[in-house]
Amino acid sequence: MSPRRDRGDELWAAVTDPTRRQVLDVLLALGEATATTLAAELPVTRQAVAKHLAVLERAGLVEGRRRGREVRYAVRPERLDAATRGLMRVAADWDARLATIKRLAESQEP
Amino acid sequence: MVPDRIEREIFIDAPLETVWAIVTEPEHVGAWFSDSAEIELRPGGDTTLTWEEYGSVRARVEKVEPPTSFSFRWARPVGAEPRAGNSTLVELSLSAEGEGTRLRVVESGFRELERSEEEKAKYAGENERGWEHELGELREYASTQMRPSARQ
After folding, report:
1. What is the pTM of this model?
2. What is the distance in angstroms between the Cα of A94 and the nearest Cα belonging to chain B?
3. Is the ipTM of this complex over 0.95?
4. pLDDT tens track for A13-67
5. What is the DSSP secondary structure assignment for residue A76, as one 8-state letter?
6. Angle at A51 between CA A56 and CA A80, to 5 degrees
7. Among B142, B135, B70, B74, CA closest to B104
8. Residue A61: DSSP 8-state
9. C-alpha pair distances (Å), A17 with each of A23, A53, A90, A100, B68
């Protein structure tokens, strides 16, 4: 496998996780944020946010910059190319559809 | 660069038969997938998925093995007959897990879809729409997660 392909897989793994998509969403809304700030905005712990940020940083989707004692993260929008955005949407669509199927099934009379 | 398939799964606290009905019956498919659906539930069966906002998408049933396996191929753009190169394959697999059901979905064929420039602009590429749109989608998605009954 070529390094390019590996990079593609990594990018894909990075954006198909619902929590990581939320991290990207919040980062885009705030411009930049620390793991602590992100954890306050999301239903996950700071430790979990830090792990997701590490995956996103490895995939090149976010960049961390040290300011004093804290690291502030920002999205690298040029890395979110059209294909990635399209597939993020496909994954998000399926998550929403599966959630709807679950809700419908669990509300049926047995 | 573009992966050819996506895989998602969910655990549902309902029996296999209930989930099978929701996944395959037109009245339910018209609730979780499109706005309305017509499904001929047999291999090769004609299927039409209609979104009020976009129009009707043609699909063809590929596999029906109650209550564990259902797959169909849906075409883009609106109105096109599904064939190789203009469609993706959706495979839904159900398995009993304790009292509930594990539902897996695999959608594949994006790489082929990507080859067609027309489709690329309409579907996989989203070249004309920027992050503002994606953010809207993500927010909408996040809010449906938080308010499960909010779907119109």
Report:
1. 0.65
2. 7
3. no
4. 777 788 888 898 888 888 899 999 999 999 999 999 999 999 999 888 899 999 8
5. -
6. 10
7. B70
8. S
9. 10, 12, 12, 18, 26
